Amino acid sequence: MIANGNRATLWMYRCCSNEELPMRQAGLVLSLLMLATSALAHEYQSGDITIGHPWSRATPPGVDKGVGYLTLTNEGQEPITVTGAASPRANSVGIHETRMEEGMMTMAPVSNGLTVAPGQTVEFKPKSYHLMLMGLDQPLEEGERVPVTLVFDGAPSRQVELHVEGAGGAHPE
Ligand SMILES: [Cu+2]
Predict the structure, then answer these.
(1) Is the pLDDT of residue 62 over 70?
(2) Is residue 170 part of a domain?
(3) What CATH number is associated with residue 10?
(4) Structure pTM?
(5) What is the DSSP string of the chain?
(6) Alpha carbon of 77 to ligand 1 centroid (Å)
């Protein structure tokens, strides 16, 4: 963002194109997937945080970035912050936010983590917050379970499994 504008733009484009491209096909299969994903609903508990339905999308050949979506619900009395994530399948896992700026879809890393207030739920979902798996060792395939460890301030770290849905997959929102 500071000195190397061109590189930052390219990187953002590649990252975003991976996240947003499959959305174009999502409408056709949405109703089918709503049936499918309801059968796969799964959640995890870590301290006062509940991690709901972690999922991802299959990645096309030659793309080494994948996404992760889930919900975080804070059932406690104190704020809980997700400060980072890691996966054995990726070189690194970032917390990103996609948003509209001047009619363009852009995305940026969330620095200093994402805080969930007591009683609140934060959704990681398409066109919003997401985990970005960077440097995948191999493509994510539909039906696969991808382990991701979430690191919290205010709750113990927790390993969850992303259920990989089809490339056009969209979770009912
Ligand atoms: Cu991203």
Answers:
(1) yes
(2) no
(3) 2.60.40.1890
(4) 0.75
(5) --S-HHHHHHHHHHHHHHHHGGGGGHHHHHHHHHHHHHHH--EEEETTEEEEEEEEE---TT--EEEEEEEEEE-SSS-EEEEEEE-TTEEEEEEEEEEEETTEEEEEE-TT-EEE-TT-EEEE-TTSEEEEEEEESS---TT-EEEEEEEEESS--EEEEEEEE-TT-----
(6) 30
